[in-house]
Amino acid sequence: MPELVFFSGTMDCGKSTLALQIEHNRSARGLQGLIFSRNDRAGEGRLSSRLGLVTESIEAGEGFDFYAHVVGHLSAGGRADYVICDEAQFLTPEQIDQLARIVDDLELDVFAFGITTDFRTKLFPGSQRLVELADRVEVLQVEALCWCGARATHNARTVGGRMVVEGEQVVVGDVNQPETVVGYEVLCRRHHRRRLTSAAARAAALSPDVLPVDPVDQDA
Ligand SMILES: Nc1ncnc2c1ncn2[C@@H]1O[C@H](COP(=O)(O)OP(=O)(O)O)[C@@H](O)[C@H]1O
Ligand SMILES: Cc1cn([C@H]2C[C@H](O)[C@@H](COP(=O)(O)O)O2)c(=O)[nH]c1=O
């Protein structure tokens, strides 16, 4: 049975790498996929991984109709055995419905990749719809880690090096950026709640106020 699978995780956990591996393994066996992405950091019409791999993709902008595109492709004599869609968090709920229809009516596997929540820990509308509709939600096995060593489950946005919790939902960007640009850092929930990024934790560790001497302990 064809499936709609949502591969989900934080930023920088290997989603695009997995998308490229699925594409590689299937095309190596003679299958042909349609590859879509939206707002990839490498630019329009690209699906890129931090490991340096990149492939061409069809840019799925806001008004793009996935179902109509695939039907048009097949009607024109094109072949499609499966569909890959990266940065699926940026898609509209209607576009996710179109992906589900590709699975049900055209009987193609659809593999969607994306982060679930934004920098405020709120669901992206596209990811919400994927959680609602997907046959399977797969959390990636290679865990991204918070600076404390715990599993990273949340995405933080930094502006001028400081974590922010207000702003536009969509700002294309990357982890490990200089303080001068908007950046992202993956954190465990505990440190996301406390707004404690690695830089803030380093600063706190250097501050004399961090470990106040407890007078009770001193007397003990
Ligand atoms: N220099 C490196 N050596 C080994 N692995 C790396 C290196 N740089 C990045 N990675 C791996 O690539 C992952 C990011 O992959 P990517 O597909 O770009 O993530 P995502 O699409 O989830 O944001 C990192 O979590 C890490 O496992
Ligand atoms: C948390 C968060 C992220 N984004 C953007 C930043 C990146 O361009 C992508 C995620 O890409 P990745 O391949 O998973 O690293 O999403 C955003 O626009 N808003 C956010 O809140």
From TrEMBL:
Signal peptide, first to last residue: none
Keywords in alphabetical order: ATP-binding, DNA synthesis, Kinase, Nucleotide-binding, Transferase
EC numbers on record: 2.7.1.21
Catalytic residues (UniProt): 87
Superkingdom of source: Bacteria
The protein's enzyme class: transferase
Pfam families registered for this protein in UniProt: TK (PF00265)
Binding site for substrate: 170-173, 184
CC annotations in GO: cytosol
Single annotated GO MF: ATP binding
The keyword Transferase appears for this protein: yes
Reaction catalysis annotation: thymidine + ATP = dTMP + ADP + H(+)
Coiled-coil zones: none
The keyword Nucleotide-binding is annotated on this UniProt entry: yes
Swiss-Prot/TrEMBL GO biological process terms: DNA biosynthetic process; thymidine metabolic process
Family, per entry: Belongs to the thymidine kinase family.
Protein name: Thymidine kinase
Organism for this UniProt entry: Streptomyces mashuensis
Record lineage: Bacteria, Bacillati, Actinomycetota, Actinomycetes, Kitasatosporales
Gene: tdk
